[in-house]
Design brief:
This protein is mostly helical and 337 residues long. The radius of gyration is 26 Å and the shape is elongated. It is 64% helix and 3% strand. A hairpin with a 6-residue loop joins strand 1 and strand 2. The termini are far apart. Helix 12 packs parallel to helix 14. It has a domain of 117 residues: Alpha Horseshoe (Serine Threonine Protein Phosphatase 5, Tetratricopeptide repeat), CATH 1.25.40.10.
Length: 337
C-alpha cells in the first residue's frame, strides 16, 4: 500500500480593474483579482511498501550506487532499489535514478523501481520521462491510485491536459475519496476552460475535506471570474464561518461587493480584512475606492494615504490619492467631509 507525502509549491498573482468614479470620467485604480492562499500545485504521492521502509535505515549514511560485492540476483536488485529509495529521502534524485536503473537492468518488472524513477524525474522536471516511468509502473500494478495521480501531474506539466484529466479520473476511480486528485484535476479543467466542471471538482474537494482551504478559494475565485457573484459570496461566507480570521477572504468579499457597487458592504469587508492585517495596503486602497464612490472624499484620501504609509511605492494608491487631491483643489463642488 502506498502512503502519501506531499510537496508544496506556492504562487499568488495580482491584476488591475478600472471602475468609473462618480465624480468625473477619471478612473479609480483598484487591485481586484482575488487574493489567494498559498496554492499547492505540485504534489507527488509516494509509494513505500513495508519491506522497503524496513531496509532504508541501512543506507542512511554514505549511500552510493557503486558496484556491490554481493551480486546474487535477489540481493542485487533489491539493494539497488533500497539505495534508490534512500537517496530520495536525501533529495538526491539524479543519484537515485542511477540506482533504480541498475535495479531495472536486473529485473525490468519492478513496479517500485519504475514508480520511484518517476518520482525522481518529476522532481527533476523531466516530465516526459516521468510519465513514461509511471506508465511502466501502471502496467505492472494498475490498481495503485498514486501511480495514476502522479502520471496526471506529469501530463499537466507537459501541457497534455486531456491525458492529465484522464489519469486523475483513473486515480479517483481507484480511490474515490482522493481529494487531492480532484483538486489538481480541477486546476487542469480550469486551465482548459471547462469552468463548470472545475467548480464541481473543487466542490468535491471541499466535500471530502472541508479544511482544504485552497479549494474553497479556487472555486470562489472562479465563480467571481464567471461573474457568479452570489455563489462566490456564499463560498467566502463559508470560509469565514470556519475561519473568521482569514483576511484574504474578507478582502475578496470586499472586491465582489465593490464590483456590485454595494459600497457599504465593501467598506465593511475591507475593514474586517484590515483589522486582521493592519498593513494590508491592497485593502486600504480598495477601501478608499469604495469611500470615494460614496463621495466620502476626506476618508477616501486618508485610506489611500494609509496604503502609501504601508507601501510608499504602491502606484495605484499614489495615483488615486494624487488624482483625488487635484479634483478637490480644482472643483470646490466636490464634497470634502
Amino acid at each position: 500500500m502506498k502512503y502519501p507525502h506531499w510537496l508544496t509549491v506556492a504562487g499568488i498573482a495580482t491584476s488591475i480593474l478600472l471602475i468609473d468614479t462618480p465624480q468625473s470620467s477619471a478612473s479609480i485604480s483598484v487591485t481586484s483579482k482575488p487574493a489567494e492562499i498559498k496554492v499547492k500545485q505540485n504534489y507527488y504521492a509516494y509509494s513505500q511498501p513495508g519491506e522497503l521502509a524496513n531496509n532504508l535505515k541501512k543506507y542512511e549514511q554514505n549511500i552510493s550506487c557503486h558496484d556491490i560485492e554481493d551480486n546474487s540476483g535477489l540481493t542485487h536488485y533489491q539493494t539497488w532499489l533500497n539505495r534508490g529509495v534512500a537517496l530520495q529521502q536525501h533529495e538526491k534524485y539524479r543519484e537515485s535514478i542511477v540506482c533504480l536503473d541498475r535495479a531495472l537492468s536486473v529485473r525490468n518488472d519492478l513496479e517500485q523501481a519504475w514508480y520511484r524513477r518517476g518520482i525522481a524525474l518529476s522532481y527533476l522536471q523531466q516530465y516526459s520521462q516521468a510519465a513514461f516511468s509511471y506508465e511502466q509502473a501502471i502496467k505492472l500494478d494498475g490498481k495503485e491510485h498514486t501511480s495514476w495521480y502522479n502520471q496526471g501531474n506529469a501530463y499537466k506539466h507537459l501541457g497534455k491536459y486531456n491525458k492529465a484529466i484522464a489519469a486523475n479520473d483513473q486515480a479517483i476511480s481507484r480511490k474515490p475519496d482522493f481529494h487531492v486528485a480532484y483538486y489538481h484535476m480541477a486546476k487542469v479543467l480550469e486551465t482548459t476552460g471547462k469552468y463548470q466542471r472545475a467548480i464541481a471538482s473543487y466542490q468535491k474537494v471541499t466535500y471530502l475535506n472541508p479544511e482544504y482551504s485552497s479549494a474553497w478559494y479556487a472555486q470562489a475565485n472562479l465563480m467571481t471570474k464567471l461573474k457568479q457573484y452570489t455563489r462566490a459570496i456564499n463560498v467566502y461566507q463559508k470560509i469565514l464561518k470556519q475561519q473568521p480570521n482569514q483576511h484574504k477572504a474578507w478582502y475578496n468579499l470586499g472586491n465582489i461587493y465593490l464590483q456590485l457597487k454595494d459600497y457599504e458592504q465593501a467598506i465593511s469587508a475591507y475593514e474586517s480584512a484590515i483589522a486582521l492585517k493592519p498593513d494590508y495596503y491592497l485593502a486600504w486602497n480598495n477601501r478608499g475606492a469604495a469611500l470615494e464612490a460614496l463621495k466620502q472624499t476626506k476618508e477616501a484620501i486618508k485610506s489611500y494615504s494609509k496604503a502609501l504609509q504601508v507601501n510608499p511605492g504602491y502606484e495605484k494608491a499614489l495615483n488615486n490619492r494624487r488624482r483625488l487631491l487635484l479634483l478637490v483643489s480644482n472643483d470646490l463642488s466636490i464634497p470634502y467631509n
